Amino acid sequence: MQTFPDVISLASGYGNFAPPAAAVAQAAALLQAGPLPTSPIAGMPELRAALAARYQQQGAATGPEQVLVTPGAKPALFALFKAALEPGDEVLLLTPNWFGFRGLVEKAGGTLRTLPLDPATDYAWQPEQLSSAIHARTRILLLSNPNNPTGRVYTRAEWEGLLRITRQWPGLLVVSDEIYDGIHFGPEPFTSLLSLPDPHRQHVVVSGYSKSLGLIGWSVGYLVAPEELIRRAAAWQFSTSAAVAALSQAAAQAATEQASAISQQLCSGLLTNREIMRQWLAALPPQPPFPLGTYYAFPDFRRFLRPDLPLTEASAELAARLRAGGAEVVDGGSCDAPGFFRLSYAVPEPLLREALRRIRAALTAD
Ligand SMILES: Cc1ncc(COP(=O)(O)O)c(C=O)c1O
Q1: What is the predicted pLDDT for the residue at 11?
Q2: How far apart are CA 105 and CA 85, in angstroms?
Q3: CATH 3.40.640.10 domain position(s) in the chain
Q4: β-strand 341-344 against 330-331: which pairing, if any?
Q5: Ligand 1-lining residues (CB < 6 angstroms)
Q6: Which residue's CA is minimally distant from atom 14 of ligand 1?
Q7: Span 22-257 CATH architecture
Q8: Which residues make beta-bridge pairs with 93?
Q9: What average pLDDT does the chain have?
Q10: Which homologous superfamily is 8-16+261-364 in?
Q11: CA 308 – ligand 1 centroid, Å
């Protein structure tokens, strides 16, 4: 009989994927070739070129000089914020969203303001709501697509609606964190912000290799932005940290060249667990539509909260109750969505089944 840990975690943001063989082979070849090369601060020219080519294939006009390679997506975001924000500048974040954004914006000297999207409309962005939320001090509109934690994937048509508004503010940067871009299950190919027309050169993409490309622990991410911003972000990286190790960049280059095949394989490997999660949720009280992207579900457990507590406390209390019942999940309160909980299904199937059984038992216990 299989034994399980006392607490099974569905809370990690990283999947249980093996690194892609081609990436490992490229890194191993470099390691065996002798002393490692050092990298220019903005990244190895071959990797910057491979990334630019990847976005060109999606219809973008990106050149290698618009790419900064960083030690993960988080440093890419921080370098961008340091390069773009002046004191008093505001970052408008569409929520729910990844809990890490707030600290990065604040530590970079910006002011974070949130624009909540409604689960009842499947987190659609509403033109009127956007129009009235953006003003002269708003320097950055920030979102993630596919969204962490909701898993929502925004379509080309939705982007077009949003960009009609942001084009009225040429000093505004539209920043799309696309680190989950390869993990999507919808009928439409994924739309990168970079593939949409950008007459005012406002579009910025942040991404990395730790989610959609299986390079967990290799610490590679990147920023794609207008050249002047890249120069400033690279200067920040030069004076405060270092270029990414050539070994990781070699692996990243191989992964970039085979990005679609790698992500497709990851998605196929997730299908069984995705279906287990989908069916498990279908047996609960009505939920928002099952997300088309990421390896998360973000169910609404508001009806299981203690009614005598304020919402955020009740949400934290339920997360603690689930943990006491043997399953760790992410409290949506950390993503501005108390009462919702992020559950990853990128874990081994037996662990997923057991964790879901424990969650249901904890939710329905008297
Ligand atoms: C939306 C989003 N952006 C950025 C990051 C940070 O990624 P990295 O591990 O490459 O720094 C994460 C990690 O969880 C994330 O979910």
Answers
A1: 98
A2: 9
A3: 22-257
A4: antiparallel
A5: 13, 72-74, 98, 100, 144, 148, 177, 179, 208, 210, 221
A6: 13
A7: 3-Layer(aba) Sandwich (3.40)
A8: 114, 142
A9: 97
A10: Aspartate Aminotransferase, domain 1 (3.90.1150.10)
A11: 35
